User: Fold these one by one.
Assistant:
Number 1:
Amino acid sequence: MNEQTEYSDGDLRNTGMSLKHDREWDYELDRIVEAVEERDASKVGLQFPEGLKRRGPDVADDLRELLDDDVTIMLSGQPCYGACDLDTFMMRRTDVFVHFGHSPMKESEKIIYVPLFSNVDVMPIMEEAKAELADPDDDPDVGLVTTAQHMNRFGDMADWLEERGYEVHTRRGDERLTHEGQVLGCNYASADVDADQILYVGGGKFHPLGLAMEHPDKNVIIADPVNNVVTIADTEKFMKQRYATVHKAMDAETFGVIFCTKIGQGRMEIAEKILDSNDNAYLITMDEVTPDRLRNFGFDAYVNTGCPRITTDDGPQFHKPMLTPGEYQIAVGNKPLNELSFDTFHGTW
Amino acid sequence: MNEQTEYSDGDLRNTGMSLKHDREWDYELDRIVEAVEERDASKVGLQFPEGLKRRGPDVADDLRELLDDDVTIMLSGQPCYGACDLDTFMMRRTDVFVHFGHSPMKESEKIIYVPLFSNVDVMPIMEEAKAELADPDDDPDVGLVTTAQHMNRFGDMADWLEERGYEVHTRRGDERLTHEGQVLGCNYASADVDADQILYVGGGKFHPLGLAMEHPDKNVIIADPVNNVVTIADTEKFMKQRYATVHKAMDAETFGVIFCTKIGQGRMEIAEKILDSNDNAYLITMDEVTPDRLRNFGFDAYVNTGCPRITTDDGPQFHKPMLTPGEYQIAVGNKPLNELSFDTFHGTW
């Protein structure tokens, strides 16, 4: 993250003002009610991402009014930061299970995915972002990506760029991604296009920073309509942190190799490869990978085969070095330091 | 907890010296190896309580030496504070699943429970505790309880008291408890005996404080052989905290009612009773009940139908009042304040 970024007029970061974009979402209650009636469901589970958990009770109230009295509505209290965080207990114990705010990771008749498209207008911030793009006469090629929340405007975004003389390059990354142009925190294959500049339209820096780490050769322009700000993704701080972690792990003798039990995060073959080649590596299975849970193990370093964003974004919070599988190979001397790269996930579950 | 307790000679609390009792445990490797060979197992899961997680790698090493190379050993990274905390993912995905340090909560052919009996000598601290017991000529009746770790010495403890003129009252609480005289953090039915004084022999204050809250009419003497100290259980601080929490919850309008999905903690009928009687109560399902996980819900107060020790011991860490089901009834005015009592669990799973 570029700490030197100057805040321009209208930049809403750190002002609390970005909440003004926190308008009503479309919870698609009709679709839920229809499914409940169709399946004669008596138990309905609702799972919201962390940022929207507070809306749960109101959505439950609205559903209660629309449904029979004997339908029990449950809210998931499990942590939910992404499409991987499906509450499998709730999925098994309810007749209809509604997951809000993420694209499908696992398809099932029982699960209803409600995407929660944002109603924020993206055009003003794209207009601002244009100053950071190369002049179309010099370099017309632009890759365009966004998140699940803004997919409903993706076509408009592409048209807007084309109208201004750009050649827009988009693709659907791989089978992990639901939509063309969509990125996930762990998958930026949609940016694997023939363009040196990528325009990311969406809230926050979480996704564009992953994108810039995965594609260090590309210029990633962030058009953030939620905070009303345009920035360039700068991975320097992250990369320094990763190099420091790898260096520290070079002194480690014992390694805890984490296999994450969440849907979409199991990479047992990678874990087993490490275990087979290192007698001082031990397999740990867990769902939430948190500093607290690892504190009581006495390993010198950890390798996380689960969510790469836990490793890179939460890394400094762990009491011992936390590595991606690729970083582990560097730490034990199997690969040179200059092969350090971002860990990504492909496939679904 | 009595803050005024004077530390006597030899009291090892807060000295770090209690670790000297942290000797080798008997991990019963032979029994594990036998089960692995009998079942031709290729995956073996090991789950340790938090305090013993650090021993996991050594136990894994010892097992590796005793087992075929193609057997994969996994360590559970799930939180483990009690018999309820069975790692159900690991249970499902391994051929032999070993749970160390707790009594069985769920019996299954696949699970091996290794109790990890303590080898600490309990007689010296019982000798000291005698000064806190009534003279046997005045009141010979003593209830005797201990934890799973010291069950192997339970007969000796009873004999020792009998030899000194006491009439020892013991019982197996109910089907939640494996042994006569055993207490769990959530079940003190073993102390439901015809005696005004209960001698608890075991480490720490966690169990005797629960015992004293459940049986406020009894004098609970703590003979702690691990910290080499004798104290009297004092619930005043805990009770004050509970009263304060209930008072605070009296102003609450909305309630999150937590159903814990862990084996042995599901009390749906209690949750449903609250939900049926209060339109401002909402059902939340989750496994680990932690302050972080509830922070994003906007409820004014919470009712925990899961582990009562989360509510009483971790209560102050939650940002909103966290109540037991009984405390909820007081907070909403269904019961008088003087009916505040300790929440206990009966039955298994």
Number 2:
Amino acid sequence: MAVVLGPNRYGKAETRLVRVVRDGGVHHLKDLSVSTALSGDMEAVHLTGDNAAVLPTDTQKNTVYALARSRGVDQIEDFALALARHFVDSQPTIRHARVEIEEYSWERIPPAAPGAGERRHSFVRAGTEVRTCLVHHDESGRSTVVSGLRDLTVLNTTGSEFHGFIRDAYTTLEPTTDRVLATAVRARWRHVSPDSDFAGSYREVRRRLLEAFAGTHSLSLQQTLYAMGRSVLAGRPEICEVRLALPNRHHFLVDLEPFGLDNPGEVYFAADRPYGLIEGAVLTEDAPGAGSAWD
Amino acid sequence: MAVVLGPNRYGKAETRLVRVVRDGGVHHLKDLSVSTALSGDMEAVHLTGDNAAVLPTDTQKNTVYALARSRGVDQIEDFALALARHFVDSQPTIRHARVEIEEYSWERIPPAAPGAGERRHSFVRAGTEVRTCLVHHDESGRSTVVSGLRDLTVLNTTGSEFHGFIRDAYTTLEPTTDRVLATAVRARWRHVSPDSDFAGSYREVRRRLLEAFAGTHSLSLQQTLYAMGRSVLAGRPEICEVRLALPNRHHFLVDLEPFGLDNPGEVYFAADRPYGLIEGAVLTEDAPGAGSAWD
Amino acid sequence: MAVVLGPNRYGKAETRLVRVVRDGGVHHLKDLSVSTALSGDMEAVHLTGDNAAVLPTDTQKNTVYALARSRGVDQIEDFALALARHFVDSQPTIRHARVEIEEYSWERIPPAAPGAGERRHSFVRAGTEVRTCLVHHDESGRSTVVSGLRDLTVLNTTGSEFHGFIRDAYTTLEPTTDRVLATAVRARWRHVSPDSDFAGSYREVRRRLLEAFAGTHSLSLQQTLYAMGRSVLAGRPEICEVRLALPNRHHFLVDLEPFGLDNPGEVYFAADRPYGLIEGAVLTEDAPGAGSAWD
Amino acid sequence: MAVVLGPNRYGKAETRLVRVVRDGGVHHLKDLSVSTALSGDMEAVHLTGDNAAVLPTDTQKNTVYALARSRGVDQIEDFALALARHFVDSQPTIRHARVEIEEYSWERIPPAAPGAGERRHSFVRAGTEVRTCLVHHDESGRSTVVSGLRDLTVLNTTGSEFHGFIRDAYTTLEPTTDRVLATAVRARWRHVSPDSDFAGSYREVRRRLLEAFAGTHSLSLQQTLYAMGRSVLAGRPEICEVRLALPNRHHFLVDLEPFGLDNPGEVYFAADRPYGLIEGAVLTEDAPGAGSAWD
């Protein structure tokens, strides 16, 4: 039996980096988890344990910290691109780099009193959602950038229906014209080019996702998903593809009749498992090929 | 050998309740996890399995939903008190009730455009912190209320020192006059009376905790803890005791010297474990006895 | 308003220690998470930030590692006692030490072939349960030891009933004479003395807990809890108190009638939340006072 | 701008099924989490919310329970295939089904005494690892089966080296000829055919993974990964591809020199993050195309 080595990569996962910028007495904060993964001439290390082509994951971690100092961290996409390019450019045996970053958001603790100056170096975690990016760069010089967010948890108390579906021998669900629709948005969007205004793009995509979720009278979560993706593509020419994964966090109306009470859409049980899971991609018709962008 | 039954309780944990109020077309949302626990005449059930004195945990769950409908949910402390009193008053075998509630915060999704009206039924999860309460009520009619919060994550990039500590044979830590101080605040505060303006109290306690964390030039996390507790007691006469648990989430300055780089308080490694853990209580001198308030 | 400092402690939580013993070519493994917490003369540090009485949590961590080397780690209770006594004995300002340890179990990877010798240095994690201990030692020389385990997950597919309970206006639960009973055992037991054969004691207590769970025809989870505690006390004179927390992991029989199928105790939905939670203590009649043993 | 719908699927995730077989008084137990996902004629539901082609996720859940009753659950791969085929065969609008199952392992609670009969209906969770499978079936009749496991946590205390790697400006890691090698194995393996003895195959693959991990003197984790994959392929002709993801759970030797102690491979700090992550595939040279098997 002949055996061959298939696709492989290695790297350092979840390097936790907090970067402070001291602008006089006013400090700024970036809080990241950085995962790097490299591919290239890796036959020897797999077959014989010869590490001559291996850049240790410890060195990858050091590089994250060193570049955070030497070039700073602004938008995570730009920092990921810089890391990926550094790795591919620095060693001939490294032919491809993949960098994934999560960013946790902070805001300034409010002033002690109205009229007091802004806090200069005190912060509080803001929001549950996490901003993400996934960057690939290879020896041919091609870079791809996917931006995203996860755990943006949203809920409509009305404006959601679900009926007209297939009924078979295992159907017990009743159609409804008014239900709670709740999900924790996992969205990722592919940029046409690695040169983009990532800060502005992120802010606007996020706004559009929220707007489409809230503004769509929904006959199914798929319809909402598509509306969210379409809204992003319609308004953001720098983006050519959106992928969404929307868990349907079921909120079941509690039957209060046994207690002599009605329940006109007021008391719900929020279930954990199982949950619906709706996944889909929306693209512009002329989206370039994705290559390894989503790997 | 003679064996006796010691302290015991039983209940339904983490009943997930979402309560919607429909004020015309404008909806309001409460998102809770409710845990009830009852004590009383429980010898028989333990010794022989005789359930005659047992109110099933399933019934406790039903009661949470029914009271959410019939009386509504406003402040979690008031809802917990209503539940606890209901249980103790409804059955002679139930002599004590303990109700613990967590509340997850939501805010309205912003309007589609400046000038557009407020969203009426669309929400997004706000913040990582969770509001909590713990209520006890017993057959003598005594009620105690502890309010609180957890996962209020805060960080000062400067204004924190640590030196002058004991040095022994196992000491390697260097003193510092400038470090990052970060923690996820777990705070609980005991009310003098079960009749309180819990909404206003919560808002002000939270503000004071943040203010004291940000406003204290810290020589140790204990000093910050005490300042936080003292500030709450100083400004809120309805509260007689504050308990705080502050994990010291270490941010280690990365040594960049091997790479020819300095690191003047800019690049940190955020460590997971181990972490410092500072716990303490601060009381008013005339605080009444706590009884079972903290159990 | 006069404010006073209440109970407090500080320490290093979750120091992850893996201790290898190299007995010639045969290696042995201990995998621990150690949490230390000290109390004593802590007024100054809280009120003014004066750290003169503070043994830094970093030093506590170092001490864990140094003692692991110098005295070795055998039973976690003995190691915790050694740590607690070291802290209290080493510094006059430390008046009380609390040490909590979790131990993760490993077993040897089986031999490559029947008849091949035992693996000498290769291990695989065994079981989901975690062995625990909680030790207190104070300046008066008193030590207390509580041993325990958590996440010992067990399930009886029959031999469990639940009926004869209170019925009120919020009752919908039907009585049953045959249900699944499942729980993740959290058990802790207090030793009469800090000098004990902790290895043998642990093995036998665990065996008795399993035996009582499996061997009790249960009319309520409280009855099972009591039987578990009583069995431990009946057979282990070194133990004077057992505390148990048993989540009732509900397994609901799925209604298959809509699909023309019966369901004679064969197909269950395992629910996450809410869950019942049964907590109780069982003591010998002559158990000495617990002091701070459970804090 | 023209927008198109890309790949999509929808289903019910993490349906928790416990299946009991009552063989006279002797009971058997299967504990599963089942996730189903369907694809097909889904344009309308995305674009207009027309659900005519949608089999609700609630119905998918019901089907899991109904088939668990009517056909029973033996090997998870066979159950997943039955589900996938049912969905594709039952509705013309469903063109592809993906079923993922996790199985949690249980063993019988040991007899009360040596010589006592085997427990008939009492179980305890065994091991931390989870058995998995991923099955695809489409309207052309093609089925693919990937079996696997996760969280098989293993550790070698010696027999692992790491040296000869690239050194660059960011390298600080020292080469070593003796280190701890620990990982939580995530392995998945693709079957040549959907007709296989999945029980025997799983048992042997697991044995080979452990054997290769323990039996390989490792110069790098990649070498160990490849040896594990190769061993599976060498011994199991029913398998054509193995994919492994091995987090390198770093165990750092603690520097005890400041305390006057040596540390000859005895005291380690087990780190959480960051961690190395080594991922790779090993295939037989004549492995058929994977199609959507890994999606």
